[in-house]
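Researcher: Next entry in the queue.
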Amino acid sequence: GVDVSLNVLLPGERTAPVRQNSSVVDFCIQGGGATITNGKINRFKQYDAVTSPSMSVHEYVNDTSEVQVRLRYSNGALLEKLAIHFVDENPPVYGRRGDDMTKPAAEVRADHRNPFGTFQLTKEGAWLAPYEQLVNPEPVAYEPKLWPWQEVKRELDKLAALGANYKGRRLYLLWDPATGRSNGVTPNFFSTITVRPGGITDRPHRHVSAAMNYIFGGRGHSIVQGKRYEWEAG
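Model: Structure for this entry, 234 residues:
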């Protein structure tokens, strides 16, 4: 369900603009640079996190003197499995309506629209919505977001200082409020940043989601289904 890759740009390189119906999360693990997403520039440095929403025209730029390395993941693998992954390597220039995907629902021909629209059926709150609402609902606006590592780390340091009496997990969710109670960094993923002071062991847990961990610093181990896995930075 997760498409994971390590992406490298040398100094002065940039990618060609692309868009796809999968959403993307990038963690910069070396160097820095910028993303240009729907015309918005987000500059990032080491350990910053940045998102590219579904169907956004985006590209990556390395305008620094260092090699840029990004841990990139998306829900592209799941969409590939379902045979519905759309990848456009020649997207229209952002801001110019060039195909049906960028047209608002209001441009559907009048004689193709249900004239009664969406309406409440009962006072208890049951509604009826026409075909147009089913196939082309109003989208929730997802903007590209940047979580600067230095600001995130400042908050993690407060968790690290709580001491051994604190029994909760020392993490923060990278949250986009547009995802609501699904707690997403994008509509498809949630991402967390965790700090574990020396000698701290989290309580055992399990979940139905798959988890991917990248170690920024330090070392330790995890025990999964009784098997011990040693890990360290990188």
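Model: The helical segments are 76-81, 131-135, 149-160.
Researcher: Noted, moving on.
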